Amino acid sequence: MSTTLLLPVLLLAAMVASAESLTLKPGCRPSCGGVEIPYPFGIGQGCFRPGFEILCDNNMAALGNTGQAIEVFVLSLSVTPRPEARVMVPVTWQCYNTSGDPIDWYIRTVDYNPAGVYRISNTRNELYVLGCNTFVYTNGGPRGRSTYSYYTGCAAYCDNAQSAKDGDCTGVGCCHVDIPPGLSDNKMRFTEDPNWSHSGMEFGLCDYAFIVEKGSYTFRAADLGMDGRRTSKPLRLDWAIRDSNGSSLACAEAPTMPGYTCVSEHSECVDSTNGPGYVCNCTQGYEGNPYQRMRARPRKEFPCNGICQDIEGSYNCKCRPGYESNGSPKENPCTPKFPLPAKIAIGIGLCVFFLVVGLLLAFIVHQKRKLAVHFEMNGGNILKKVIGLAIFTHKDLKKITNNNSDRLGNGYFGEVYKGTLFDEARTIVAVKSFIKVDKERIQEFTEEVMIQLRMAHPNVLKLMGCCLQLHIPMLVYEFAAKGSLRDILHGKKQQKLTTKLRLDIAIGSAHGLSYMHSEDIRHGDVKPDNILLNDNLIPKISDFGLSKLLNLGEKIAKKVIGCDSYMDPVFKNTGLLTPKSDVYSFGVVLLELISRKQIVYGPNGSLIIEFRHIYETEKSGRSMFDKEIVAQDDILILEEIGKLAMACLKEHQDSRPGMIEVAEQLMKLRKKTLDDASNNTEMGATADATLSVPPSPISDTTRLIHS
Asked: What are the DSSP calls for 112-150, one per residue?
């Protein structure tokens, strides 16, 4: 027999052996993505009992009939001894701004009850709530004294950003409770009580809630800043045979009713322990699928190396056709009955096959080893233990960037590409090259990644993850669609900016730097290139420069690097880097915002020197202001920003204001612009009344804006 003819024979034998499973329905797809699909579950028409449909898309198994468009992916399905489905369900979350208003959320309910099949297991799951000022609850059951027959939930609170501790889920940042039986959906309700407001909070601006299988989750403080869009948790579901209205019969009545499902010869009915209905088990001493019309077989304690046949009080055991046993197959294995030529052909075929497989495996091993070497060299063994950091593989990154097809430009260290995460929101990201990491730089690189990861603020560019399997590591950040402040002020993306818009950019940037300073992080390289802007021109502080060169508590940098024009003279001359060094650089940024001149302009122009000279001689910086924004209503605001910039640029660090004070001064100026606008509106209304012209009614929206 030739090798070509022999391989199909071997494949057919394997298929026959596979078909002998006693849990799968004959003629139906046996699995999806490694998940075995036992009846009453099934894929495709005629392969499942109503309510037990399984969907298979892109080799991923998901529950059908959940009552929602959200996919609930299946990890495993079991028929006996415990009827259970283990699935992955997204977490529920809601995020707020510092005013306490919800700005983003994911509150999607999965209703497991439309077909009356599933209940969330109360013995195998528990409810977790994460947050720094939140109360979340869920409910279920038929209407009782209130809308539902039971409610359960808990409250989580943080006094400050450091309150929550890893592994401690007793109310500080995290709480958890058991759930009652009969729960058929995972709907979470975030309380709207003003006592749980996030107004004025600078930390813990997101709340999370999820039901998860017991023992699979341990709280980490970093989870208070996790990306809810990309997070799912395992959940265990009990299932039973019951009507869609939940009025199924118990075992005392079910065997006499139409549609009774315990059809195997050796099956018995057992009442459900979670909700109405019943399940089927094999009788003692037998195993198989009690939901199918086939004879169950004796359990494995009755050995058989071939085909087992049940007989009353005992069993027979014989080899499959084409196989033989040296003695009884109860004690000895069954081996193929092949003549010598067939065995030689098999031997030659196997040699060729294993040679090809060996070469292929060697190539795969070489590639994996290469990726592993890069991963280790780039600090992967350290970073893989960091909670909340997404580590993408090389394959993931190629998929995210579509093979680097959309190049955004050059960053400080190399190429920057636009990409799309494969989460539900299809999040747009920027993928940047970093420095080449060697043995001396591993600690420096990993510390910078961890510093950037812990920066959770609306005005600090968010690190989404990294890829460490490349020769040079790649970092994945949130996408800033408008580019840098330098692009907006001086580059190709230059656009018209009002005084109020420039002031908002300054305020957001100051808040981001204030937050970094509160976390004992000094930026060290503040300049318009490192202030990025999103679609709404909200500023994001990026490229933390020298933060990686300083251990916590240190003030003297080992290396003085950065842009000379924006660098604090004290730091430049001594290496002393303090938060006041960032204040000096921010003062330069303020000058660029109000003048729209680069730090060095024209053949000999120096923005700092020229502005300081004019300010000291003319007691005003008006002649330096951008002509586009010099208007009667704005000149006083611009003068105040110029004065604040001069205070930031003072020679002695102790004479400069702190970044918190700078942000507060800018906020006062912003409030003044709103007050002036409101006064102008009132004056216009008075003038209209004088002319006997009826004033237009002010909408509620206008009142809110000017309040």
From this structure: -TTTT-EEE-TTTEEEEEE-SEEEEEEEESS--SSSSSE
Counting runs of H as helices and runs of E as strands, what totals does the chain give? 13, 35
Alpha carbon separation from 496 to 29, 158, 377, 400 (Å, rounded): 62, 42, 46, 33
Q: 3-state secondary structure string, 567-617? A: CCHHHHHHCECCHHHHHHHHHHHHHHHHHCCCCEECCCEEHHHHHHHHHHH
> Cβ(158)–Cβ(133) under 8 Å?
yes
pLDDT at 531: 94
> What DSSP element (H or E) covers 287?
strand 286-287
Whether the CB-CB separation of 43 and 29 falls below 8 Å is answered with yes
Phi and psi dihedrals of 289, rounded to 5? -115, 105
Question: How many residues are listed for the chain in this entry?
Answer: 707
Encode pLDDT of 451-477 as tens digits: 888 888 999 999 989 998 888 888 999
- How many Cα atoms sit within 13 Å of 550 on the Cβ side? 22
Task: From the options 2.30.30.30, 2.60.120.620, 2.10.110.10, 3.30.200.20, give the CATH code of 378-479.
Answer: 3.30.200.20
Is 153 in a helix, a strand, or coil? strand
**486 is written with which tokens?**
């330098």
Measured from the Cβ of residue 369, the count of other Cβ atoms closer than 10 Å reads 10
* Model confidence pLDDT, tens digit, residues 656-683: 999 999 999 999 998 887 777 666 655 5
User: Which part of the chain has CATH 1.10.510.10?
Assistant: 492-677
| Integer Cα distance of 286 and 271 in angstroms | 19
Predicted model pTM: 0.48
- The span from the CA of 142 to the CA of 109, in Å, is 18
The answer to whether 383 and 391 are in contact (CB under 8 A) is: yes
**What DSSP state is assigned to residue 21?**
-
- The three-state secondary structure class of 477 is strand
Query: Under a CB-based contact definition with an 8 Å cutoff, are residues 67 and 58 in contact?
Result: no
pLDDT band with cut points at 50, 70 and 90 for residue 513: very high
Contact 288, 23 (CB under 8 A): yes
3-state secondary structure 508-577: HHHHHHHHHHHCCCCCCCCCHHHEEECCCCCEEECCCHHHHHCCCCCCECCCCCCCHHHCCHHHHHHCEC
Q: In which residue ranges of the chain is CATH 3.30.200.20 found?
A: 378-479
* Record: fold of 492-677: Transferase(Phosphotransferase); domain 1 (1.10.510)
Separation of alpha carbons 544 and 459, rounded Å: 13
- Alpha carbons 69 and 479: distance in angstroms, whole number: 28
Tokens 């190539």 found at: 363
- Residue 204 burial (CB count, 10 A): 24
Q: In 3-state terms, the chain is what percent helix, strand and coil (to 5)?
A: 30, 25, 45
Whether the CB-CB separation of 23 and 36 falls below 8 Å is answered with: yes
* Chain centroid offset of residue 157 CA: 22
pLDDT tens figures, 332-350:
888 777 766 777 888 888 8
317: helix, strand or coil: strand
Active centre residues (catalytic): 525
Question: What residues does 84 pair with on adjacent strands?
Answer: 78, 238
**673 Cβ contact partners less than 8 Å away, ≥ 6 residues apart:** 499, 500, 503, 637
Q: Which pLDDT score, from 0 to 100, does residue 681 have?
A: 57
Place of tokens 């091993």: 365
Question: Quick check: helix, strand or coil at residue 623?
Answer: helix
* 641 and 503 Cβ atoms separated by less than 8 Å: yes
Q: How many Cα atoms occupy the beta-carbon half-sphere of 135 within 13 Å?
A: 9
Nearest to 586 by CA among 567, 601, 573: 567
